[in-house]
Design a protein that fits this description.
The chain is an all-beta fold. Helices cover 0% and strands 38% of the residues.
């Protein structure tokens, strides 16, 4: 995973807080409850590259979280989702047929879990707040 992504290389969806209480991504999950209403912005291909919030891990602590911490194939094996531990608010969706990044979802709070539908290529994710994102 890279530290920035250009909207001209894939679809980039960025969560926006409609209540106005959260303006930028949080790197700790305690703030997930602050986002009460949100929507997604699909970034225009002409926008500048998006810098991803980064969490530095202490490799000297026991069992440090580093690398890809979550991976899951879609039901038809055409898509793969990943979440890197050092970019907890970003969910990467890969097109396995094209071997390329298909979409990037940028959340305001760290992503706790993400699952594909068992029937089709629909995705659900949660950040520890009151919302499940579909």
């Amino acid at each position: 995973h890279t530290t920035s992504v250009s909207p001209d290389s894939c679809l980039v969806y960025r969560e926006r807080d409609l209540s106005g209480s959260v303006q930028e991504a949080m790197t700790v999950s305690q703030g997930a409850h602050l986002v009460s209403r949100s929507s997604y912005d699909l970034l225009d291909r002409n926008e500048a590259s998006q810098r991803l919030p980064f969490v530095k891990c202490d490799p000297h602590k026991p069992n440090p979280k580093m690398g890809v911490g979550h991976v899951q194939w879609s039901a038809d094996s055409s898509m793969l989702l990943t979440r890197a531990d050092d970019h907890p608010t970003a969910l990467w969706v890969w097109d396995a047929r094209q071997l390329s990044l298909f979409a990037l979802m940028l959340q305001l709070a760290p992503i706790r879990d993400a699952k594909w539908s068992p029937r089709d290529n629909r995705l659900a994710l949660c950040t520890g707040g009151r919302t499940i994102f579909l």
